[in-house]
Structures are given as structure tokens and as C-alpha cells.
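Project channel, design review

CF: Before we commit to the Candidatus Parabacteroides intestinigallinarum constructs, I'd like one complete example in the thread so the newer folks can see what an input/output pair looks like. Taking GNAT family N-acetyltransferase.
RD: sounds good, go ahead.
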Amino acid sequence: MKVSLREPFSSYIIHRLGIDEQVKSFDCGDADLNDFILNDSGLYRKSLLSVSYVFEAPGDVNHEQIAAYFSLANDRVSLSDFPCKTAFNRFRRHRFVNEKRLKSYPAVKICRLGVDSSLKGLRIGQFLINFIKYYFLSDNKTGCRFLTVDAYAAALPFYFKNGFEPLNEEDKNEPTRLLYFDLASIEWSGQEDLGK
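CF: and here is what came back for GNAT family N-acetyltransferase:
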């Protein structure tokens, strides 16, 4: 599951942005993703709605040129995500014993993920997805079972390649699709390298 990055990215770090920290420059080719990290991520952090992380060179304390970023928020997988109770029951039947069949299950949403346009194809996105997976397995920080994402149609192949699955078929032809990844599907020894 570990993704090796080519130099110079193997020395890059993942830094959690503080409330008052601002990214100076970023272009992933998507205006909405760019605008969020350049203008809105601090406001979301202040409002306790999401937390953003940047992937950058170790000495880039002013966040002049980040390679990538992602934002996370708490979420859940629940009955309301399915077209009917039968579909929800089918979803949880293979994952939980009867005593653990709840009305909702804890998740973390990948709200946004962007990689600088000039760096696409270097597996940075895959590295960050794997980092997020192992980050929430390590000490199970929030009691999180699933990762979720509302993926743009153009990003679906990327998420499918990284093990995400559609939560239902209702949004199949929509501009975004609700996907999930079951963290329990990872064999976890606790010794894995989480990256930086």
C-alpha cells in the first residue's frame, strides 16, 4: 500500500494549516479547488467545519508553493445515504455483526483534494489518499470506520483505483458521486510507514 515518491518529493512534509496560515499560490486546474485553499480554508477551520493539510517542501514555512492539499471533515454513513432501508441493511450485513448494526457509522470526509497541475502523474494524489487511510487507522483517532468523498465525475477513476466504491446507484449520472472506503478492509499491523 505504500507509495514511493520520486525526488524531490520524498522529503516533502504534510502540514496541518493553522487558522491564520494562508497558502500564497496554488493551481490544480480546478477553479473551485484553487479558490478554497487560497481563500476559504481558514474560514472553514475557524468555523470548525474542516481542516486543511498541505503537502510542501520542508522549508516552505510561508506556503509559497505547495505541491498538493487536502481538507477533511467528520461525516457518517447512514440510512439516509441509501434509497431504502433494505439497501442499507444489505450494506451493513456483511460488515457488522447484529449487535453492531447501528443507524449510522462514523466516517471522515475528504472534502477536497488537489494536486498542482505541473505535478500531475507523479502519484502524489495516491500517496495522500494512502496517508489519510493510515492516519485514521493509526490509534483510530476518531473511531472512524469509513472514508467518504463526493467525487467529481472526472475524478471517479482515481478514487476507484484507490479502492473507493459507490455508496449507492442513485447518483450514478450526477455531477458528483458519493463514494466510500472501508478502513476495516486494510490489514493493519500498526508498523506501517504513514509518510511524513
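RD: helpful, thanks. The longest strand covers residues 104-115.
CF: DSSP finds four helices and seven strands in the chain.
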